[in-house]
């Protein structure tokens, strides 16, 4: 099978509602600042009614990463599930408009398209409440064999570990990727995801994953340690390649033969950290799919993350390929 895609990503298809908020609002709503909480449709609607005016944009972690890959000029495809409703139509249009392939059939009967209520405090921290809706109905039959077999990197979103059908879809995608000699990548997504599914994640990482993305909180939670160094050493022994972000400290790239420190790109003001990890993964995988050295992959990743945290929303507002060219990347 020829290489048709740089990245094929599987994840939750979500429409984000992003609003400014202060810490008092976060506390009053009983939310865990900086984290992601799963909610039902009723709680999602009630929170939406209390939030400040904001913006609505197609999101979802892996879908955001696909948007980043496309912005770099890469060939990308997204696999996920929306409902046959207005938000589902918006999401489908948005994915195709950025040049990404998205062909999964919408859910005809069942819950509505997923939505994420995101409150952003003045320090740039995003607090998310996610109604997963139709996205949880992504299943094995939604995994297109020809897409997986034609992608250089198959990228899986850790948030999907909350849905059993999606776990089976992960297993199918992983088997197809391995049989086709493709690289399998996983993002841990969130510290709470790690806490809920630590043993299942470890088993999947040990048996299937070639490339792991995590932030410092997720990495330490995975190995139940307060030490970043201990977590880094544990990761090095489990996967061929890992990229761990550390906020203003930049990121660390770990392979079985080396450890690279990548400095963060300078940002004049952090506005909204939503999508930072998603765009980091986009830059890294775009570079890797194009044969760039690991240090260069890290620089592209940092560039993409810096762009997205400089404005509201989880996707680039400029063409990342132009930004990279201007920086000499």
**Low-pLDDT ranges:** none
Q: Calculate Rg over CA atoms.
A: 18 Å
Any idea of the CATH topology? UDP-N-acetylmuramoyl-L-alanine:D-glutamate ligase
- Beta-strand portion reads 15-25%
- The ordered string of helix (H) and strand (E) elements is EEHEHEHEHEEHEHEHEHHEEEHHH
Number of strands: 13
In DSSP terms (H or I, runs of 4 or more residues), the helix count works out at 12
Category from helices, strands and their pairing: alpha/beta
Distance from N terminus to C terminus (CA atoms, Å) equals: 30 Å
Using the 3D structure, state the CATH architecture.
3-Layer(aba) Sandwich
**Average pLDDT across residues?**
93
Sheet of most strands: 8 strands, mixed
Helical amount: 25-40%
Strand order of the largest sheet: 5-1-8-9-10-11-12-13
Looking at this structure, what is the CATH superfamily? Ribokinase
Please write the CATH class name: Alpha Beta
Please tell me the total number of domains: 1
What does this structure look like?
With 329 residues, the chain is of the alpha/beta class. The chain has a single domain, classed as Ribokinase (UDP-N-acetylmuramoyl-L-alanine:D-glutamate ligase, 3-Layer(aba) Sandwich). An eight-stranded mixed β-sheet has the order 5-1-8-9-10-11-12-13, with helices on both faces. A five-stranded mixed β-sheet has the order 3-7-6-2-4. A hairpin with a 5-residue loop joins β11 and β12. α10 runs antiparallel to α11. The longest helix has 18 residues. The mean pLDDT is 93.
Question: Keywords for this structure?
Answer:
329 residues; alpha/beta; UDP-N-acetylmuramoyl-L-alanine:D-glutamate ligase; eight-stranded mixed β-sheet; five-stranded mixed β-sheet; 21% strand
């Amino acid at each position: 099978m020829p290489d048709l895609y740089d990245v094929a990503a599987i994840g939750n298809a979500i429409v984000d509602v992003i609003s400014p908020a202060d810490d008092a609002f976060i506390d009053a709503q009983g939310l865990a600042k900086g984290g992601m909480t799963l909610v039902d449709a009723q709680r999602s609607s009630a929170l939406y009614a209390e939030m400040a005016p904001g913006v609505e944009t197609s999101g979802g972690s892996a879908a955001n990463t696909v948007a980043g890959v496309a912005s770099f000029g890469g060939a990308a495809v997204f696999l996920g599930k929306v409902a046959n409703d207005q938000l589902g139509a918006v999401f489908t249009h948005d994915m195709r408009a950025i040049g990404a392939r998205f062909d999964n059939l919408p859910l005809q009967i069942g819950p509505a398209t997923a939505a994420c209520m995101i409150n952003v405090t003045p320090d740039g921290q995003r607090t998310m409440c996610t109604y997963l809706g139709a996205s949880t109905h992504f299943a094995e039959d939604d995994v297109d064999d020809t897409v997986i077999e034609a992608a250089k990197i198959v990228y899986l979103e850790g948030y999907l570990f909350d849905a059993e059908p999606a776990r089976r879809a992960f297993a199918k995608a992983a088997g197809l990727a391995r049989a086709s000699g493709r690289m399998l990548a996983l993002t841990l997504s969130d510290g709470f995801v790690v806490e809920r599914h630590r043993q299942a994640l470890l088993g999947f990482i040990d048996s299937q994953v070639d490339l792991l993305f995590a932030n410092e909180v997720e990495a330490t939670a995975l190995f139940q340690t307060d030490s970043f160094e201990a977590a880094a050493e544990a990761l090095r022994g489990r996967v061929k390649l890992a990229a761990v972000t550390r906020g203003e400290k930049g990121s660390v790239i770990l392979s079985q033969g080396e450890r690279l420190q990548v400095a963060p790109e300078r940002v004049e003001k952090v506005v909204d950290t939503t999508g930072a990890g998603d765009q980091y993964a986009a830059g890294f995988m775009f570079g890797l799919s194009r044969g760039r050295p690991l240090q260069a992959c890290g620089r592209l990743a940092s560039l993409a993350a810096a762009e997205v945290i400089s404005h509201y929303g989880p996707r680039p507002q400029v063409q990342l390929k132009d930004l990279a060219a201007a920086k000499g990347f």
